[in-house]
Amino acid sequence: MDRTLDLPEDPAAAVAVLQAASADAPVLVFKRSPICPTSFTAERQLRLFLEQLDDEAALRTASIDVIAERALARGLTAELGVQHESPQALWFRDGGLSWHASHGAITVASLQEQLA
Asked: What's the predicted TM-score (pTM) here?
């Protein structure tokens, strides 16, 4: 199952896509820096979480490179009224942002808890 959700560059449009997609299934947005060791650690936790998912689990994911996609990364959190962090997980459910975490709070256990 392809879980990847592509986001438009415009932050407001990206929020609209996330709201619409999460009405049907949860969506996890992962913001990370390609040069940050803390991002690598959080991304490892994300990969482990995804590897443990059942193929039929309803979850879509999107990834944002905070350097290459700076305007989207910062604009998305501004649209949501959330402080920009990196790494950062943004969990959408039922058409809205239901949870967010950053740095060491992004763990397999915290992601599993959101899916439950």
From this structure: 0.94
Alpha-helical (H) ranges within the chain are 11-22, 37-52, 70-80, 108-115
> CA 110, 80, 62, 10: dihedral to nearest 10 degrees?
-170
Tokens 């689990």 identify what position? 57
Q: DSSP class of residue 4?
A: B
Nearest to 33 by CA among 64, 75, 1, 72: 64
The H-or-E segment that residue 32 falls in is strand 27-32
* Tokens standing for residue 90: 């943004």
Kindly list the domain boundaries of the chain, sorted by start residue.
11-115
**11-115: CATH architecture:** 3-Layer(aba) Sandwich (3.40)
Q: What is the pLDDT of residues 78-93, one digit of tens each?
A: 999 999 999 999 999 9
In angstroms, the CA 86 to CA 36 distance is 9
The pLDDT, as a whole number, for residue 57 is 84
